[in-house]
Structures are given as structure tokens and as C-alpha cells.
């Protein structure tokens, strides 16, 4: 399967149509019966169009939560469970998620792979060695409830842009793919801004791209929704983003703890302040007036459809 489109929604439409055509030839895996493509390549030309505009696949809150979990450099269950409850099924000790990406991306002892890639590309922009390894040999040496689906992330600087190639051993097309494209293309833009460059194409390869039988109807509903507006997120502000990321993570902890505060007073660009407001809306839960007030403060109004879903 080869898909080349401008946006995530366009790519999902093509992927779901292709997988639904294979429902007569299914595979029975550990998580159930599924339609599967071996060797799927997805090229998204505009990585900022990383949020689905559909009613069912527009997962702003859970996708942002998963990205912040990665950036927290930790794999604690209590961080991600409010955003993506199904991670509770993957913990082995009730405290952590073995396959969590945070420590694998930002591990100590010289294993800060994100930092190493940024340093390498800053010194040698043409390098082909800027690879982050997520899956490793130890993951199948002993039995685990779940192991990383992502094998590698590779970054290239070409034509003054940072391009990215993601390789997956396994990819759930309905739940996993939209989250993966969001999180990894955001990481792509973070690396690009750190290197004072813009983003190029995002390319995503899955050894197994599959659609579980219980989601065939949902995927068909997405296809039936038809044309989705092609709207991208705003550009990440120029300059090193890591100070802003640290402020956003600290603000996330405050919002999680129930604290009320004004994101506009954190000294952040509107881009990052809006992400804080989205987290605040998520943790406001059933407080309708609070959600409405925060929604009015959002500067990028195209987030509004996702916010309305919280109301």
C-alpha cells in the first residue's frame, strides 16, 4: 500500500478504504481478527495538518496528552491514563507502562536520543545517522504485556527543512495511526525549530497496518463522512522550543492538580499558551462555564470544534 497525500485525513481515507477492501481475507492476532496490509507507506506532505477534522478521528486531547507524556521523559501510568485510559491494560506493575516512549527517547547516561539527533544534525546537516531507536532486542527476550510498536524515527535535513521517516513494526490504523502521526510530526517540528529550520515531509512506514474487525463499522463511518476540511495547525514559533515545553509541562501538572490559572500570564507565545488552555479544558471536565471561558481565550479558533466536543 502506497499513500501520498497532503493531510492526515486524506491519508486516513485512503488507508481505511484499502483495509476495508480486505475484510474478506483476515488475520487473527493476539488482539483479535483484523484486516491487514503488510508493508504500508504513507507520505504526508503537510505534517502540520496532523489533526483529523472528522467527528470521530479528531483526537486533539488524547493526542496532545500522549505527546506531553513523551516529553515528560517518563513512562508513568498516572500521567497518561486520564488522556488514554486503555494504557491501564498495558501496565505490568500498576505504576509504569513498560513500552512507554519517554525514557526511550530521553533516557539518561548518553541515551538522550532526541538530544543526540539534534546535536548531530546541528554539526552535520547532511548526516544519515540521525536515527532514534524505540524498539530494542530486549523487548522480545522476555514476555511483556505490550512492547513498542514504533521501531525507529529518522530525521533528515534536506533543502533547509527537517524531514522525518517513522518505521512501525505494527500499527493499529484506527486508534494508533492518528495519534502516531500527531505525536511524531510534532516531535519533527520541535527538532526543526531547535535547528532553526522548517518542517518538510513526514513519511510513515508500517510493517503491519491493520484494522480490527470491531472497528470496521467505525472506519466505514469515517469514509462515509466524506470530504474533510484541509486545515493545518499553526506554525510552531521560531527559536528553541525547549524552554516553552518545560513551562507547558509544569502548567499541565498544575491543571491536573485542579489549579485555576491564566495561561496568558505564563510568558508563552500564543501557540504554546493555547496548548496549555487545551489541557486546562481537558481537566475542567464537566465545568461547562470554565470550559466556555477557556475556549474564548483560545487564539487559534480552528481548535473550536474539538473544544465543543467537551461541551
From TrEMBL:
<dbReference type="InterPro" id="IPR023451">
    <property type="entry name" value="Thymidate_synth/dCMP_Mease_dom"/>
</dbReference>
<keyword id="KW-0489">Methyltransferase</keyword>
<dbReference type="Pfam" id="PF00303">
    <property type="entry name" value="Thymidylat_synt"/>
</dbReference>
<dbReference type="GO" id="GO:0032259">
    <property type="term" value="P:methylation"/>
</dbReference>
<keyword id="KW-0808">Transferase</keyword>
<feature type="domain" description="Thymidylate synthase/dCMP hydroxymethylase">
    <location>
        <begin position="62"/>
        <end position="224"/>
    </location>
</feature>
<protein>
    <recommendedName>
        <fullName>thymidylate synthase</fullName>
        <ecNumber>2.1.1.45</ecNumber>
    </recommendedName>
</protein>
<dbReference type="GO" id="GO:0004799">
    <property type="term" value="F:thymidylate synthase activity"/>
</dbReference>
<dbReference type="InterPro" id="IPR045097">
    <property type="entry name" value="Thymidate_synth/dCMP_Mease"/>
</dbReference>
<dbReference type="InterPro" id="IPR000398">
    <property type="entry name" value="Thymidylate_synthase"/>
</dbReference>
<dbReference type="InterPro" id="IPR036926">
    <property type="entry name" value="Thymidate_synth/dCMP_Mease_sf"/>
</dbReference>
Amino acid at each position: 500500500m502506497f499513500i501520498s497525500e497532503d493531510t492526515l485525513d486524506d491519508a486516513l481515507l485512503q488507508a481505511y478504504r484499502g483495509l476495508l477492501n480486505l475484510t474478506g481475507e483476515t488475520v487473527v492476532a493476539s488482539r483479535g481478527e483484523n484486516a491487514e496490509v503488510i508493508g504500508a507507506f504513507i507520505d504526508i506532505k503537510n505534517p502540520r495538518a496532523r489533526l483529523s477534522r472528522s467527528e470521530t478521528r479528531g483526537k486533539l486531547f488524547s493526542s496532545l496528552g500522549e505527546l506531553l507524556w513523551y516529553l515528560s521523559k517518563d513512562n508513568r501510568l498516572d500521567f497518561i491514563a486520564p488522556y488514554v485510559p486503555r494504557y491501564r491494560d498495558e501496565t505490568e506493575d500498576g505504576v509504569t507502562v513498560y513500552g512507554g516512549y519517554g525514557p526511550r527517547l530521553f533516557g539518561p547516561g548518553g541515551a538522550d536520543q532526541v538530544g543526540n539527533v539534534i546535536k548531530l544534525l546541528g554539526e552535520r546537516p547532511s548526516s544519515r545517522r540521525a536515527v532514534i531507536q524505540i524498539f530494542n532486542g530486549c523487548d522480545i527476550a522476555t514476555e511483556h504485556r505490550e512492547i513498542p510498536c514504533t521501531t525507529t524515527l529518522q530525521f533528515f535535513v534536506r533543502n533547509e527543512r527537517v524531514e522525518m521517516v517513522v518505521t512501525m513494526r505494527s500499527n493499529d490504523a484506527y486508534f494508533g495511526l492518528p495519534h502516531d502521526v500527531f505525536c511524531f510530526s510534532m516531535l519533527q517540528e520541535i527538532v526543526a525549530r531547535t535547528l532553526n529550520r522548517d518542517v518538510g515531509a513526514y513519511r510513515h512506514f508500517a510493517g503491519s497496518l491493520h484494522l480490527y474487525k470491531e472497528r470496521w463499522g467505525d472506519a466505514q463511518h469515517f469514509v462515509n463522512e466524506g470530504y474533510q476540511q484541509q486545515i493545518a495547525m499553526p506554525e510552531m514559533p521560531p527559536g528553541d522550543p525547549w524552554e516553552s515545553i518545560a513551562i507547558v509541562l509544569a502548567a499541565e501538572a498544575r491543571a491536573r492538580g485542579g489549579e485555576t490559572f491564566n495561561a496568558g500570564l505564563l510568558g508563552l507565545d500564543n501557540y504554546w499558551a493555547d496548548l496549555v488552555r487545551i489541557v486546562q479544558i481537558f481537566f475542567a471536565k464537566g465545568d461547562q462555564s470554565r470550559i466556555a471561558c477557556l475556549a474564548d481565550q483560545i487564539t487559534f479558533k480552528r481548535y473550536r470544534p474539538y473544544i465543543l466536543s467537551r461541551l
